[in-house]
Write a structure and sequence with these properties.
alpha/beta; eleven-stranded parallel sheet
């Protein structure tokens, strides 16, 4: 009995020791590494829940925040450098002011580079606006605002004044244009600003070398003294200017171009020129230069189509509007012209070249103190044709030659005779009224290619003596019809068609 009790006691003691050891190992394991990881995982879950429970998030954050040993601010970490990415283009319709690119606008500092830089940024943005602000005078040298990689529909907002340099060094050996826009789509130049070519430094030095319209030869005073056109314009020069004079503003190879509101004045040569353009709109526009400034056409069109010009005031030393070869679908209306040489188609066919002009309408025009009114002029020896022209509702006042077709045009003292000519057909003059000072009608056509289908309707032209020799209406090889009595009587126009007629379709020009 006693032994049995001792064994039982011994067994119980061993079991107790094993239970105690197992308990000790379990406690130590709970305080080990795995316990800490589990606690950390749980804490992170609480933190995630804290995104939806602010109080729980704050409590966990306070418990996990280590106590700082110092009151000094912790050192901020430097951001990790990232590769530079190309800047995204500014949003559509952004504005670029030339003043923000370093332009001074004081009339003396060279602002050319500022204009170029502003254009380069505007060029990248569709429907952007380049701003030339009012109240400033920007001196800008020869510059090209060019495509063809520019975005569409850029607005050149011109409210200030742009002036041309007058020192010869700025022009090198001579340039054909001063401000040029090339290969653009939807460009608009708009505003109340002025482009001033300061052309007097060019005119004074080149008058004797400039061609003069041959109509000047007919202007003879009653004292038999020839009235010389383009007298010398006085001006102080800053060095001898190149013989090649620039056009003030030229557009080349562009589509849907608009010019409105601005004034171009005192251009060395043409004020505004469009070359190889399709879709041209010019309105509320002014060109201004002295009547004796040589070759200063107001608007010059060449190889351009679908052109609309209206509501313009054009005063210059040459043609108010000059329509050259390659032009078709041109509509001009509500224009004031004078001084100047009127509105002219040509001259065409110089040096045996082929010229094609068609579908031209000029109506509702006032002309005062111009050399010619509405005119077609071609050189001997050329080829091609002028077809489908209407001059309507033209009011003339003291115009030397209101109606003119001249197929013997020559801007020198003499020109060689040739049999070939640019053909002229389907030309209508309607409602031409007012006063003339030299000759009311001059229609001089080629022997080999007589003018065909020339129609005169409601012509009322009264003489206004100004001390010049007065001429009667003159016609040569001109065929067509008079649709109503004319003042004065124009009996020289031959009725019907010439016996040696020609086919307009055989002139080499597209119909």
């Amino acid at each position: 009995m006693g032994g049995f009790s001792f064994k039982k006691l011994t067994f119980a003691f061993v079991v107790a020791i094993l239970v105690w050891a197992s308990s000790l190992e379990t406690c130590n394991g709970r305080r080990g590494k795995h316990w800490r990881q589990n606690r950390g995982t749980l804490s992170s879950l609480y933190k995630k829940k804290g995104n939806n429970n602010n109080h729980g998030h704050q409590v966990i954050a306070e418990k996990s925040k280590p106590k700082s040993k110092s009151k000094s601010k912790p050192k901020q970490k430097q951001p990790i450098p990232t590769p530079e990415e190309p800047l995204a283009p500014p949003p559509k319709g952004s504005k670029f002011n030339v003043l923000d690119y370093g332009a001074k606008g004081d009339g003396a500092s060279d602002d050319t580079q500022a204009f170029q830089a502003a254009w380069e940024d505007a060029c990248k943005v569709e429907a952007s606006t380049l701003i030339v602000p009012s109240g400033y005078e920007f001196l800008v040298g020869p510059i090209s605002f060019s495509g063809p990689y520019c975005q569409r529909n850029i607005l050149f907002q011109l409210d200030g004044t742009i002036i041309a340099p007058t020192n010869a060094k700025a022009w090198g050996k001579g340039l054909l244009q001063w401000l040029e826009f090339t290969k653009l789509v939807g460009l608009t130049i708009k505003g109340k600003g002025t482009i001033d070519g300061r052309g007097s430094v060019w005119w004074a030095d080149s008058v004797l070398d400039d061609p003069v319209d041959n109509e000047e030869q007919l202007i003879i005073s009653l004292d038999n003294i020839t009235v010389i056109g383009n007298p010398q314009v006085g001006s102080s020069l800053e060095g001898k200017m190149p013989s090649t004079k620039p056009t003030a503003l030229r557009f080349y190879g562009s589509f849907n171009v608009t010019v409105t509101g601005i004034t171009i004045q005192n251009s060395p040569q043409c004020h505004l020129k469009f070359d190889n353009c399709d879709g041209v709109l010019v309105y509320s526009f002014s060109a201004s230069s002295p009547g004796d400034s040589p070759n200063t056409d107001g608007i010059h069109l060449q190889n351009s189509k679908n052109v609309l010009i209206h509501t313009a005031d054009l005063a210059c030393g040459d043609d108010c509007i000059s329509i050259q070869t390659g032009c078709t679908n041109v509509f001009v209306h509500d224009v004031n012209c004078g001084p100047g040489h009127g509105i002219s188609i040509g001259s065409l066919g110089k040096d045996g070249t082929t010229a094609c002009v068609s579908n031209i309408t000029v109506r509702n025009v006032n002309m005062h103190n111009t050399m010619t009114g509405v005119r077609i002029k071609t050189w001997q020896g050329g080829s091609g044709s002028v077809q489908g022209v209407l001059f309507s509702n033209i009011q003339v006042s003291e115009v030397e030659f209101p109606i003119m077709i001249d197929q013997y045009y020559c801007d020198h003292s003499s020109c060689a005779n040739h049999t070939s000519a640019v053909a002229v057909s389907n030309i209508a003059y309607e409602n031409i009224r007012g006063t003339y000072t030299v000759k009311p009608v001059h229609v001089s056509c080629s022997d080999s290619r007589p003018c065909q289908d020339v129609r005169l309707t409601e012509i009322e032209l009264e003489p206004m003596p100004k001390g010049y020799h007065m001429y009667d209406p003159f016609c040569w090889q001109a065929f067509g019809e008079l649709n109503a009595p004319t003042i004065p009587e124009i009996g020289c126009l031959q009725q019907g068609a010439p016996s040696s007629g020609w086919d307009p379709d055989e002139t080499g020009c597209a119909a």
